[in-house]
Specification:
Keywords: Membrane, Transmembrane, Transmembrane helix. By secondary structure, the protein is of the alpha+beta class. It has helices spanning about 1-10, 145-175, 180-190, 200-220, 230-240, 250-265, 275-295, 300-345, 345-355, 355-365, 395, 430-445, 510-520; strands at about 15-20, 25, 30-40, 45-50, 60-65, 65-70, 75-85, 90-95, 100, 105, 110-115, 365-370, 375-380, 385, 400-405, 415-425, 450-460, 465-475, 480-490, 495-505, 525.
Length: about 525
């Protein structure tokens, strides 16, 4: 017994489950290693490690494959590594993790982890102001109500088309074979049929009376196909009394007898003989001829009136088609215009249809030119034209050269001017003094309600200047109404005095874009360039 106990203790292994971590304190978003270790495992043991997100409140980022330590030993070790993280600061406890060995449960100890905020060192990391929001044009999108409206218009157009088509068919039906000719054709087809030869007398007399009823309905415009025999005979006698039908009494009586024989054949299974049917056929032919001849004929004058009426009716219908088409077209245009205004705005529609001079200048072909000596390169919607620059007499003595180039006038939607003054003797230009002088200069030109702001300006080439901008009003010399303007004036003092003046209409988005584009492309060149 003692020997057996020693043998069992020699071949039995006790499994142990533990965990290791590389740190218990981390920064927000930093990862830690969580390693579960199972000791004393043999080849016969089945080990199941934790799966999925069992480490809450920490989040498992990644889990690695199971690794084996000392696989050649009888009792070896299994390990499994997990990467954990947390994105909120605070103290967290990772609960014990379940490891199953041969369906037996083992648990690790609890892990406490501290997650710290990221400390910003403002002595090493500079703080920058919040960037302004960037305006983005709303993409063109047709609203859903536009498609619903368009669908309704198409449905209305389809209904109108069907109505006109039905009217056309009705008109064509009125112009088909006349009732008497159609009745004669039907009688001839009945004569060629095999109804009499096959002794199908019921079908023969039913078709014979149907031909006459259809003729009377179309010719006399009565409901002959719906009337009973008595009602139809009463209607014929009524028309005879009103002198609308000059039909003999005996002819009406004979026709009544034929109708009654047909009724008996259809409803009482009566079988008329062959001789009677042939006689009825001849009598029907006479009846139709007499009815046709007994109807008052249309005179030539009435025919002309009818033709004129038909022409007037056709003209009226054509006019109705045009009116419906125009109305549908106007509705479609209105819906389209409304959709464009709702999505792109009224100004976009007006500029696209009517046109906008500033927009045409902005989107047109621009010109890049050098002006004066030393040259200043400017890119403008049109070439600047050289003019005469007027200066105060007090400074003319020291002026070596003066130049001015301009495009447009003060009262137009865009006015661009480049002024250049070169002095005989070099002197410092106080741009701040010139800024103060701009207000007076605008007043001298007739401007009022002047608002002036100033800021430093620098070209792409590094030449520094002073920019004055704002708004003013000026009276239109023709209409005597106010013209509201925006302006941007940039002054430079590089080897003399240079000034760029841009006036454009207030609330003109294209004018402001033109001004910015001109100023951003200004370049001072040396004589050798």
């Amino acid at each position: 017994m003692l020997l057996m106990l020693l043998l069992v203790s020699g071949i039995g292994y006790s499994q142990e489950v533990s965990f290791q971590t590389d740190k218990d304190t981390l920064q927000i978003g930093e990862q830690i290693d969580y390693l579960i270790k199972v000791d004393g495992v043999s080849e016969e043991d089945l080990v199941v490690f934790p799966k999925d997100q069992t480490f809450v409140p920490l989040e498992m980022v990644e889990d690695y494959k199971i690794d084996t330590l000392n696989p050649q030993a009888k009792a070896f070790t299994l390990t499994k590594l997990y990467k954990l993280t947390q994105f909120d600061s605070g103290s967290y406890s990772v609960p014990p993790q379940l490891v199953k060995i041969n369906e037996k449960a083992f648990y690790t100890d609890t892990l406490t982890v501290r997650v710290n905020d990221v400390v910003l060192d403002t002595t090493k990391q500079k703080l920058y102001p919040i960037k302004p929001s960037i305006g983005v044009e709303k993409p063109f999108a047709v609203p859903s109500w536009f498609w619903w409206t368009l669908a309704i218009i198409l449905i209305l157009a389809g209904i109108a088309f069907l109505v006109f088509k039905l009217k056309k068919k009705r008109d064509e039906a009125k112009r088909r074979i006349p009732p008497y000719e159609q009745a004669m054709i039907s009688l001839k087809e009945l004569d060629k049929s095999s109804a009499l030869e096959n002794r199908d007398f019921k079908e023969y007399i039913s078709e014979l009376t149907y031909i006459t009823r259809r003729y009377l309905e179309e010719k006399l415009e009565i409901r002959a196909l719906e009337y009973t025999t008595n009602e139809l005979i009463s209607e014929l006698k009524f028309k005879k009394e009103k002198k609308k039908l000059a039909l003999k009494e005996d002819m009406i009586s004979e026709y009544e007898k034929i109708l009654k024989r047909a009724d008996l054949a259809k409803f009482a299974n009566s079988r008329p003989d062959l001789i009677t049917l042939k006689s009825d056929r001849k009598q029907i032919g006479k009846f139709l001829k007499q009815v046709q001849s007994s109807i008052p004929q249309i005179t030539e004058e009435e025919k002309k009136k009818d033709e004129a009426f038909q022409k007037a009716l056709a003209k009226k219908r054509k006019k109705q088609k045009w009116i419906v088409g125009i109305i549908l077209g106007l509705i479609l245009i209105a819906v389209t215009v409304t959709a464009v205004v709702a999505t792109k705005g009224y100004e976009y529609l007006k500029d696209s249809v009517v046109g906008n001079p500033s927009k045409e200048l902005l989107e047109g072909d621009w010109v890049t030119s050098d002006y004066g000596v030393p040259p200043i390169s400017m890119t403008t919607p049109d070439v600047l034209v050289r003019g005469e620059l007027e200066l105060p007499e007090s400074i003319l003595e020291n002026v070596a050269n003066k130049e001015t180039y301009s495009f447009g006038t003060l009262y137009q939607n865009l006015y661009v001017t480049l002024n250049k003054v070169r002095f005989k003797e070099s002197q410092d230009i106080d741009l701040d003094v010139i800024v103060d002088r701009i207000y007076e200069n605008l007043e001298e030109r007739g401007a009022y309600n002047i608002i002036t702001k100033s800021e430093d300006f620098e070209t792409l080439g590094g030449v520094k200047g002073k920019k004055v901008f704002g708004s003013f009003s000026i009276e239109n010399p023709i209409t005597k109404k106010d013209i509201k303007k925006e302006y941007k004036i940039v002054n430079f003092g590089k080897g003399g005095f240079q000034q760029i003046i841009i006036f454009y209409d207030r609330d003109d988005e294209y004018g402001e874009k033109i001004a910015d584009r001109i100023l951003n492309a200004v370049e001072f060149k040396n004589l050798g360039q």
